[in-house]
Design goal:
membrane, two-stranded antiparallel sheet, Porin_dom_sf, Porin_Neis
């Protein structure tokens, strides 16, 4: 149950007669059990446990957390400034419900930390650590909505349609909806001496809603402050939660720039059936210090069918296909076919049970983590397996859990 805390109850200074202020405490706790038929540790030099796929790999059963929705707690609030304008803020911290640890070590509010103003006629401007415009407007139709990012994100979350990437030092402006059209732009300052653009992140996106139909498109660009040669982290890309690194893109971590262009959309046939789709083009461009020499490109397409047979039950099935380009000496480009199923049963408005099943098949070749050696591509389902890809071409993952929202 969300708890609205009146400002007066907090014992703060009394506000003017026209002003109203509130703060809401909220959160999610999500814990379960997961199984992988093949699990290894992602090597920063080879890109997988071995350069050549083996028949099996080690199966693993483990406690999982934040699979359906990341475990978190947060505060958000608004103050009426008059004239239709409000001051707003949000502070949100992720945590591991299996261990109690922070989801990102050293960050007090790893998921979001921003403040801003909003007006129904002029739009919303916020500043701080937050999601980019690209993610915010495209995400309603991403595969993660019903398949989760952990199991259902496009392989390795290469196109950042899950919540893994949040940009520090960001300014985000979003227009009000005008005849169903919303436009947003975000810019994250690099803060590097001698170069305004080094380490910056920027994105632009638009979303259009018309009855049961929705469509969104956007572009996101992230610059490495070191112009290549240094792997992505909080100093090279000014984010604190780097764009996802997995067996899919491990060999290209020293890129000077990352660019994502994507289109997502959906259509609701009825209150029981809806379909969503997503297409993305992702490019990693080398810099003067990068270990690879040619731009790496991945194209991904996928769709999700969602069915709600009755009020308490949601079922979904999805498929995605990712193909890399032939570059950097690779003549057999890597491909990834991923299949997903999801089931969610509501015990109440705040508590639910879920089950997830996924299979991925990888083919072709990619670069090892050293950015030079060519190795066989290995499977890595969604983004929960980014640090533990398969040792072979195939991977199966199954998870069950319980989630409670307050």
């Amino acid at each position: 149950m969300k708890k609205a805390l009146a400002t007066s109850a907090l014992g703060l200074v009394a506000l003017g007669a026209h002003a109203q202020s509130s703060v809401t405490l909220y959160g999610i706790v999500d814990t379960g059990i997961g199984y992988q038929n093949s699990s290894t540790t992602l090597s920063p030099t080879t890109g997988a446990a071995s350069a050549r796929p083996s028949p099996g790999g080690s199966s693993q059963v483990k406690m999982i957390n934040g699979i359906w929705a990341g475990s978190r707690f947060g505060l958000k609030g608004a103050e009426d400034l008059g004239g239709g304008t409000k001051a707003i803020f949000q502070l949100e911290q992720g945590f591991n419900s299996a261990t109690g640890a922070q989801s990102v070590s050293g960050l007090g509010f790893s998921r979001q930390a921003w403040v801003g103003v909003t007006n129904g006629s002029f739009g919303t401007l916020t500043a701080g650590r937050q999601y980019t415009s690209y993610y915010t407007l495209l995400s309603p139709y991403s595969p993660t909505t019903w398949l989760t990012g952990a199991y259902g994100a496009h392989p390795g979350d290469i196109d950042s349609l899950d919540t893994l990437y949040r940009a520090n030092n960001s300014l985000v402006y979003t227009t009000p909806s005008i005849h169903g059209l919303t436009v947003s732009g975000s810019y994250s300052l690099g803060g590097n001496a001698g170069s305004f653009s080094a380490g910056q992140t920027w994105s632009v996106a638009a979303q259009y809603l018309y009855g049961p139909f929705g469509l969104a498109a956007g572009i996101q660009r992230i610059d490495n402050a070191a112009n290549g040669g240094t792997t992505w982290n909080s100093t090279t890309s000014n984010n604190g939660s780097q764009p996802a690194v997995s067996a899919i893109n491990n060999g290209f971590q020293t890129a000077a720039k990352q660019q994502r262009v994507a289109v997502t959309g959906g259509y609701a046939f009825s209150s029981q059936w809806d379909v969503s789709f997503a297409y993305s083009n992702v490019q990693y461009a080398p810099g003067v210090n990068s270990f690879f020499h040619g731009t790496a490109i991945w194209n991904t397409g996928g769709a999700v069918l969602h069915w709600k047979p009755f009020t308490a039950l949601d079922l979904a099935a999805g498929y995605s296909y990712t193909r890399a380009t032939e570059s950097n000496g690779i003549t057999s480009a890597a491909t990834y076919n991923q299949f997903n199923l999801a089931q969610y049963y509501s015990l109440s408005k705040r508590t639910g049970l879920y089950a997830l099943e996924a299979y991925q098949r990888a083919n072709g070749q990619t670069l090892a983590g050293n950015g030079r050696s060519i190795i066989d591509a290995t499977a890595s389902i969604g983004d929960a397996q980014n640090g533990s890809p398969s040792s072979s071409r195939s991977q199966v993952a199954v998870g069950v859990g319980i989630i409670h929202k307050f």
